[in-house]
Each structure stands twice: as C-alpha cells, then as structure tokens.
Design a protein that fits this description.
Elements: H1 2-31, E1 55-63, E2 78-84, E3 90-99, E4 102-106, E5 109-118, E6 128-133, E7 140-143, E8 156-163
Parallel strand pairs: 1-8
Antiparallel strand pairs: 1-5, 2-3, 2-6, 4-5, 6-7
Length: 165
C-alpha cells in the first residue's frame, strides 16, 4: 500500500511538471512577435527603391583647409533642411535634421555627407535650403542656395556647401 501511494505521488508530480512545461511552451509561442516583411527602404546607393518611388536630397559639405579638427569633430556638425513659405520666411523641416552620415577624404579634401529620403508625394516641391551649424543649437557655418526636391522618382538632388570655422 505504501508503494502504490508513492507511485501516485510521482505520477501527480510528473503531471504537474509536464503541465507547467506545456503552459510555458504555449506562453512563449503566443508571446513571440509576428514579424511582418518590412517595406523596401531607400538607401544612398538606390534612393528610389522605396515602394512609393521617391527620390533623395544629398548634402555634400566640404570642410575648409583651416578646420580645427581638435576642437570641432565632424560628428557634431548639425544639419537642418528648411522650407520657404509664400512670405519668404524659412522654417525647419522637423524630420530632416541631424548630424552628418559620414565623411570622405579625396585629394586631401574632407567632405561630409547627409542624405534624406523624399517620398513620391513631395517630388518637385520647393524651395528648400540646407543650413549647417557648429552643433545642435550652435552658430551657422553655411547656408546652401535654394533648391527644389527631386522632380521624378529615383532622382538625387545634390547640394554642395563649403564649411569654414
């Protein structure tokens, strides 16, 4: 009788552990996020690969030869795209602000780059301009000439400025 009672205890413990493991497995299966396929993302190499068929604007900011690299790092340079209203006032574009993406060195010149995606719904709009600052909230270093957004899908509008400290 003692052995029969002990085997019932082991059976109950096994059922409890098995049930807990099954519940845990079901909980983990339900808790897993459902990963939907992301839409195509634009890149600097192929700005028009997005589903909406937009383009891009690309800033090329050339650093002057007297740039004080020890005190002014390229990663702190702040860029802002602005749009002009019908009264000729300039306004910051909320989503098109940030630091440079990278720099390239060619023939001894250092050029910083910033690229923003332009959706198909904004193609051909303007005027816009790029303002480059010493840092977020810092003094302006350069302001580009006004430009229009790409006129057609896959077009990249390149804007060049020279930076002087």
């Amino acid at each position: 009788m003692t052995q029969n009672h002990a085997s019932k205890g082991w059976l109950a413990a096994g059922v409890a552990v098995g049930g807990a493991l099954l519940a845990l497995a079901l909980l983990l299966a339900v808790a897993q996020p459902v990963l939907a396929a992301l839409p195509p993302r634009p890149s600097a190499e192929d700005p028009g690969q997005g589903a909406s068929g937009g383009g891009a604007i690309a800033l090329h900011a050339r650093f002057g030869p007297a740039w004080p690299w020890d005190e002014a790092h390229w990663q702190n340079v702040w860029t802002v795209v602005q749009w002009q209203d019908e009264r000729s006032a300039w306004h910051d574009v909320e989503g098109w602000q940030g630091t440079l993406d990278d720099v390239a060195i060619a023939d001894g010149a250092v050029t910083g780059h910033k690229t923003w995606w332009v959706g198909a719904e904004d193609l051909g709009k303007g005027p816009f301009r790029w303002v480059v600052y010493r840092g977020e909230g810092g003094a302006p270093l350069a302001t580009s000439e006004p430009f229009g957004l790409p006129a057609f899908a896959r077009q990249v509008v390149q804007v060049d400025v020279s930076l002087a400290w």
